[in-house]
Amino acid sequence: MIVHLFVLDLMATVGVFLILTLSLNLDSGYCGICNFGKVLGMIGGAFIVAFFPGRIMMVLLGLEGDFVGNNAVVAAQINRALAANPLGSLALFFATLILAIGFGLALGYLSARPAARLTGAPLAVVLLVIGEAFRVIGHNYAPLAGGSLGVSVPDVFAWAIGYRFVIASVVLAIVALLVFFYINRLTNAPLGRMLRAVRDNENAARSLGIDIVGVKLKLMMVSTAIASLAGALYAFYSGVVASAAYTRVSWTFLPWAMMLVGGSANNIGIVSGVFSFVFIRKLIVMYKGTLAPFVPFDVMWLELIIFGIFIILIQLYRPRGIIPEKSTPTLNTHTIEKLRKTSLRKF
In a 3-state reduction of DSSP, which class is residue 341? Predict the structure, then answer.
């Protein structure tokens, strides 16, 4: 039973971090955008789940009162209705995900528009501040997501009863796989080469007619929308949205560490980095009681210490990650000369 729960929780957590880290890899790994505000998209998706489905259900069910102020009672009534209506639950689930993706696009545009012309550290600081500012707004403005206390969100998997976490984990894993295949196809297309060109040399890319600002703006919109999808899925899975839980350490710096360990600009590498981190993290949480007598400090710090050592070792001995970026295939000299001669004959 314990192993069963461990696997389910591992599947769900890997799914969330995989979606988020893939979105980070898309803009930071492939395009070189130093995005330290990845938490912005994560929070945006979670806040949509906290705000939208509960109030929609109150209208549909004819419930009165304040969703936030009377959250426990209202959420219980909504969950009873959703448990009796699986199709309605799924419709609400997918409608909220679509809205979260749309909101992510808007957040990506609003955050990247004033910062798209920046590069390096200034861009990183601006995005970091925007993400943290949005979290502070949610923490202090109760109608958005319950303020410092948070809110319970409608359980769209309530109809599964005893299999609730099984169904939720499987759905999360399926969405993560779909996102992986989408981003993998995107980055293996000519678009991926263009993004690498912008990353490696903006001046050279600009000389080829590439709109650098436009590319960065559109890419930030897409990556933030994917991050918002991760935030919405995590909120539905956990059943609660509390802005205090969406810290830059968990949802910006950890994905960065996962990307660096796995290998930036390599989607398979991202999978290896995410799985390594999440698996070690779950093992420490599972066995922290057993490990406590053997460490000379609070076991809660063991996770960060191991991660820190892990990152240092990777950067020392495999600075490009566990699975490095694949070089872009180019034509060899013999093939180029053959093509040149063929083209000359035609003239």
Answer: helix
Residue-wise pLDDT for 134-151, tens only, equals 999 998 999 998 988 899
Residue 151: φ, ψ to 5°: -140, 155
**Residue 254 phi, psi (nearest 5):** -65, -45
Check residue 147 and give left, alpha or beta (phi > 0: left; psi -120 to 50: alpha).
left
| HEC-encoded secondary structure of 295-323 | CCCCHHHHHHHHHHHHHHHHHHHCCCCCC
Q: Are 50 and 151 in contact (CB under 8 A)?
A: yes
Which of the 8 DSSP states describes residue 25?
I
DSSP states of 262-288 as a string?
H-TT-HHHHHHHHHHHHHHHHHHHHTH
The structure's pTM equals: 0.91
DSSP assignment of 188-214: HSHHHHHHHHHHH-HHHHHHTT--HHH
